[in-house]
Amino acid sequence: MPRAALVTRPLDVAALLREVQRPANGAEVLFVGTVRDAHEGRSVTGIDYSAYDAMASAELERLVEEASVRYATPDVVCEHRLGTLAVGDASVVIAVGHPRRAAAYDASRWVIEALKARVPIWKREHYADGSRAWVHHGR
After folding, report:
1. Residues 37-63 pLDDT 10s
2. Which is nearest to 30 in space by CA: 76, 84, 87?
C-alpha cells in the first residue's frame, strides 16, 4: 500500500526499505536525500525544513498514490523530515518495490521530482558565517 508522511523524527531508512520488500518484487530502490555541507559556494551547517502540514501532507500522499498507479506497484513509500537538520542528516527517503528494476528506478525518480515541484515544503539554510537564508526547495 503506498504511504507518505511528513515527520519530525529521524528517518529510519532500513524500516522504509522493509515496507516495500515482497517476494513479487525483483527490485527495491532506495533514494535518500541528505543535508549537504555546501550550497552555491557557501558552507552550510544545517537546514530548517518547514511546511504547511495539512496541504503538504495531502499533496505528498496524492503524488505517492499517483506514482503507485503510474508505475503499477503498491510498494511506494516516502517520508520527508521537518525541523532542524544537521549536515549529513536524511531529509527525505523514497523506497519503491517493483517486479522490474527499470520501473522501480523510474518511480523513485518521478516521486522526488514531483515532490520538489508540487509539495509546499520550505527550507532555510544555516551558513558557517552565522547567516541564514530561504532556498528554493528544488535545489
Report:
1. 999 999 999 999 999 999 999 999 999
2. 76
CB atoms within 10 A of CB 45: 15
Separation between Cα atoms, residue 59 and residue 70, nearest integer Å: 16
d(Cα 56, Cα 118) in Å, to the nearest integer? Answer: 9
Residue 135 covered by a domain: no
Give residue for cell 514531483.
114
Q: Is residue 75 part of a domain?
A: yes
How far is the C-alpha of 108 from the C-alpha of 64, rounded, in Å?
10
Residue at 63 is within a domain:
yes
Longest dimension (CA), the chain: 51
Q: What is the CATH number for 21?
A: 3.90.1170.40
